Amino acid sequence: MFGGIALETIYWYTLLICAGIAVLLVIFGDVFDFDGPLDPMLLVPWLAFTSLFGYLGESLTEWSSVLIFVISAAISSVLVFLLNFYILMPMKNAEATLSSSEKTLEGQVAQVVTPIPIKGMGEIQLQSVTGSINRPACFYAEQETMAQRGTKVLIIEVKDRVCYVIPYDGMLKS
Fold this sequence. Notes:
Blueprint: H1 7-28, H2 40-60, H3 65-93, H4 102-105, E1 109-114, E2 122-128, E3 131-139, E4 152-159, E5 162-167
Parallel strand pairs: 3-5
Antiparallel strand pairs: 1-2, 1-4, 2-3, 4-5
C-alpha cells in the first residue's frame, strides 16, 4: 500500500497512462524535438515497462515491493537501452527518402530541360541510377547567352532547392 492505494492499482494506472502517451508520441513524436536528459521517447517506455513488470511482480509473487520495484526498474532500463540503441537511434539517423540531399548535387553535371535565361530561371534534369530529378536552376555567374534545351551545365551551389549552374563543356577552362 502506498498512500492507502494498492501498488497493483498504481502500477496498472501508470501503465494505462503510459500506453496513451506512447500512442500520442508515435503520432506526434516527430513534431517535437527533445534534446535533453529526459527524452519522452525513452522516459515513457521506461515507466511503462517498470509499471508492467511491477504489476506482474505484485500480482504473481510474494516478494517485497521494494525488491519488485528495483528488479522492474533494472529490467526496464535494459529494455529501454536496447530500444534506444537498436531502434530509435537508427531511425533518427536514417534518411527519409531515397533522393539525394542538396549538398550531393553540387559538382554534378546536369542537362537543361527548360532554357535558362540570362537573368531568370529554367529547369535542369539530373540522371542517376535511382532515376532522374528535375530542379529549378539559374546561372551562378552572369553569362552572355542563355542555356538552351539539351545544354550541359555544372551545378556549383544549391540554395533553397534552386541549383546555381554554369555552362559545362566537358573540361573546365582555367
